[in-house]
Amino acid sequence: MIPFIGDLITSGAAAEVLAGMVLLLGGMVFAVCAIALSFIDLTEHRLPNRILYPWAAVTAGMLLVVSVLLGDIPGLLRGIGAGLLWGVLFLIARLAHPPSIGMGDVKLAVVLGLYTGFLGWATVAAAVLLSFLLAGAVALVLLLTRQADRRTRLPFGPFLILGTAIAMIAA
């Protein structure tokens, strides 16, 4: 994502420069919301709607503007599709086994799907995989060091955010 933004900003074409600036702003919004939500989830085990809903709206608007500027409507549709897919899969998991995933995680998955889907399906897959691998690794360490047992609840939001951030940076 970083090289992509750099290429847009240095392209010299007005639409591409503006799209790069909008994506840069979107990255800043991602960072602020991600940090706030991670701290809240780590301390309170919840992801508040007062952050998630505005973040989703800003992200969707930003991707709409960038898609129009770049003439990349398929990227916008892919982002929407990925957000819906990731959200529906998490909702199914939530309905099947409520203690496993919170509704905040379901809504967060939609926002993260918007970002990663815009970049491509490989980025979506990498974000999901990295999120689960990171959570599993931390859970394993906590179990091995006896700082947790199999009933300990870990907030999943920070792992979703970190896995997505890594996937987007690598894209």
TrEMBL record:
| Gene3D superfamilies in the record | 1.20.120.1220
Q: Does the keyword Cell division apply?
A: no
Q: Name one GO molecular function term.
A: methyltransferase activity
What is this enzyme's EC? Answer: 2.1.1.-, 3.4.23.43
- Alphabetical UniProt keywords: Hydrolase, Membrane, Methyltransferase, Transferase, Transmembrane, Transmembrane helix
Indicate whether Metal-binding appears among the record's keywords.
no
Q: Which GO terms describe its cellular component?
A: plasma membrane
Q: Which domain of life is it from?
A: Bacteria
- The residues covered by the Prepilin type IV endopeptidase peptidase domain are 28-140
Which positions, given as ranges, span the membrane?
17-40, 52-70, 76-96, 108-141
Single GO BP term: methylation
* Similarity annotation: Belongs to the peptidase A24 family.
According to UniProt, the name of this protein is: Leader peptidase (Prepilin peptidase)/N-methyltransferase
Organism per entry: Nesterenkonia xinjiangensis
